[in-house]
User: What shape does this take?
Amino acid sequence: MSAAPDSGQLGLFGTPDDYVVRRSRRARRLSLRVFPHGVVEVVAPERAAERTIRRFVADHQDWIGRARREFGVAAEGCGVEPPRQILLGAVGEQWQVEYRPGNRRLRVVPGVAGGELQLAGPADPHWRVQQLRRWLQRRGRAVLSPWLAELSRETGLAYRAVTIRRQRSRWGSCTARHDISLNCALLFLEPALVRQVLLHELAHTRHLDHSPAFWGLVERLAPDFEQAEKALRGAWRSVPAWVNHDPG
Ligand SMILES: [Zn+2]
Assistant: This one.
């Protein structure tokens, strides 16, 4: 649906600003989206000229500034870069990332509560981020799958299979066949919120909707669910930009 993203540095028409451009075959006109971590994404028709896109972003500087302030991020641009450190709040892990030249390889050196990721390969930020996302997904599988299994035993709510994905707009989902999918970005949240998502999806194995019966079950499983559900809506800002956005 979209080609390789490119990014722009705006200088000609307004204050310098970072944004990423996503070309879409389906897009008929330019549109803007501001993500909770402040990244601005422009969706553009495949043939839109760079110049038109820059002008469009410049024309919407006020709107972008307002949207970013609503998310509590500075109005200044925030570029996407491969991280030096990855903090996984869900499991209290801190990973240092080291980049080095050499044959493509990710070496995971576990330490106490985290460790070191030694990523050898080209100094290409796109490639680096891709490798780290893959690792994040593996880490998500290692952490979230057993966690879900444990809660399933605890609650007696059975599911069929679990997949770990990297979704942009949902923490998890559950199908009519009781297949649960979980977002690897859950690793960045505090344990109580992860638990809430897992219980929420397990409750969907009984009720596929968000009916009063569903929430009744959720309340029995997690009496303080309302607070957690509310916190989850704003928790996207805990997810570092590199997880969902490509470097400029
Ligand atoms: Zn739901």
